[in-house]
Fold:
Amino acid sequence: MARYAAGRVAQFVPILLAATLLVHALVFLLPGDPVQSLAGQRPLTDEVRAALHARYGLDSPFLIRYLRWLGGALTGDLGETFGGRSVSSILASRFPVTMRLAIVAVAVEVMIGGVAGVVTALRRNRYLDNVVLVATTVLIAVPVFVLAYLGQLVLGVRLGWLPISGTAAGWRSYVLPGVVIGAVSLAYVVRLLRAGLTDALAQPYILTARAKGLPERRVVTRHALRNAAIPVVTFIGADLGALMAGAVVTEGIFNIPGIGGELFRALQAREAAVIVGIVTVLVAVFLVVNLLVDLATAWLDPRTTHE
Amino acid sequence: MRRRTARTLIFALTMTVLVAGCGAQDAAVTTTEADDIDEVVDDDQQADSALTAFGCTVQTLLPQDSREVCGGRIVAQVFSGLAELDPVTGEPVPLVASSIETEDATTWTVKLVDGWTFHNGEPVTARSFVDAWNFTADPDNGMRNADFFADIVGYDELQSGQSEELSGLELIDEMTIEITLQEPFAPFLAKLTDSAFYPLPSIAYEDIAAYGRQPVGNGRYELMSFDPDREAVLQRYEAWAGPNPGETKEIVFIIYTGDAALQTAYLDVQAGALDVLEDVPAENLTTVDDDFGDRVVRTPTSSFTFLGLPMYDENFGDNAPLRQALSLAIDRQAIIESIFDGGLEPATALIPPVLESHRADACDTCTFDPDRAVALFEEAGGWEGPMTVYFNSGSGHEEWVEAITNQWRQVLGIDTFVYQSMEFAPYLQTLEEFEATGPFRLGWSLAYLSPEYALSDVYRSSGGANFFGYDNEEFDEALEFANAADPGDADELYQVAEDIVLDDLPVIPLWYGVSTTVHTDRVRNVTVDATTYLRVERIRVVD
Structure:
């Protein structure tokens, strides 16, 4: 297992290098002059424009620009924005925010989704099962920004229970956006778990376990749930990766200063250093999460080996 | 038994949501009625809590480099210039200067008031200004506002590297500056209100990029902390030497980012988490009066939207009747009503209504007149093939551009239009390189309040924002003549220049913006000036 993990980690290096080169090339190919878009409708004088091109290294050929960035990155300098802010400080300020949001969202998925999944599997086709079925269908169908806006309007403006935006209120700030982001995935978790558990409970080994006289609670948690959890773990792992980069819309609606919003802004401003810096970190997160999911699968199901 | 409990609970939850949903409507109505605002507020009633104001992603807080409102609104509080705009009259009034005088509009003598200091205690002297100006105009420093100094003697030599300083700036003594312009320019006083002319303390030059993130200014408010992702905290500078210090002790600009920034901020004002938001998003304009009652402030702005025409393209450049026909065929009022909820002012002049020199009837080809449009269109020889219309994407221009082309289709019978929707940077590049083959959307707002600013950069043959290739010597001369004139006669002369452009019609004027501001009931005296800056320093918090 340890050797397997080390091998996977070694693969990270070429993948990360390829990702940075690719992103650099894509930003380079974007049309338009980034310096001009900084200036708005009133154009810059040629002299100032030339000076800014030189300052941000925009006058050098692509490969030089990439190698210069790579050299900096290897020494821990990820470059800076046009405003002179270092990319590392942006990551340091924004990454924890995104992490917190992702943790709340995943917690909502696991806790509510897990309980609902188990309950519905055990009470199949009863009233509660049907209610959850309808609720999850609605959650999957409703676009996330509608959910977000409803939450803001009802819980924030009308009732005043939760802050609408920002992170000033600490963990309370993350409740509403976390639940909104987690809601759709929660619906998938319920369905995956319900199907998996139903399937597992019909297996012969469950019959054996019951025949041995094990209490029902133990049969479900130790035997059935362990097998049913595998697709859920895979799903949550993929979801965690997606939450890191894909929360642009939700972050925007709730004005959460996370990674997604900054990536979006940097793309509009064509700030190559910021884009590449963030994407590199995101790729790294994806790789690590994927590895963790694979290791977790092996632990849940000893038949899956990584030798 | 247990199952029944669960069922009851779910029923109860569902009902709560439904009831909350219904209650929402009633609540909105009652808030409006219950809102009683008393205009007179005694000083002792003022609250100690901070005013929270809308902020957005700041590029830089260095006044000499700041080109956008997000940084500009903070810079305007942290710095004070030689003169500032009176928020009500729009006239420039001396602030750090005791007098700004000229005999011939070419040589300007500026005397400073004694006793001004930067927030670190450094006195504000003539050198604080002159050094900052030389720094800004020097192209090596890459300051985006460098071109504000282009009319000062020695600018060209500085650009070409022949000199190190603007020779037109002279330090007479510690408190007196003499500025010599290349040509007479009467609106110079108005121009001096711009942030490009703010002073810098000597520590700024040690690390100008770091200073731009945490500037030490001489303004009404001192920047206590700035987190570009979250907020800027400003505290009143008690040693501020001007006549009208800030009203509240503390202002917090909350930074909103992303596409939904304005909508989120709007909800925050409704919930009371944000005190004031200028620039209500277009989606909320229909409901803003219901949502906020008398806590809505509307101000006309100088923001001018128009379609530029490619005068360098023979189809347009040599065909004045076509340009006029296109303009006459647009029913501006109808578009404003149906798309913008009436929240705009149709444009019938180039000099905007916030200026006294504005004439509502300046342009006789800017009103809807289908018969005249058709006649001129025929005289122009019609239009062959598809017409391409250009605009930048993602800023909500799609809908009204389409409405205009529909009107052209109906009135003039041009049947095919091609929409070129581009991102802002490539869009500007296309325009700069004179590659457009049809009308293109543009906007212009006044950085300082003078008809000169409404005309010069846009229509002068060498103007930086003249994307149409418009080149009329008669206009250039008329503008120069107006710039040199006595302030008393200047307005009329700018109007002469304006008429020349309107006769040629290289642009199709569309409308002027109206800024809509909403606020909570704990603040008073919300004023937006004609350059669309919310004057946060005048707002009082009463709780």
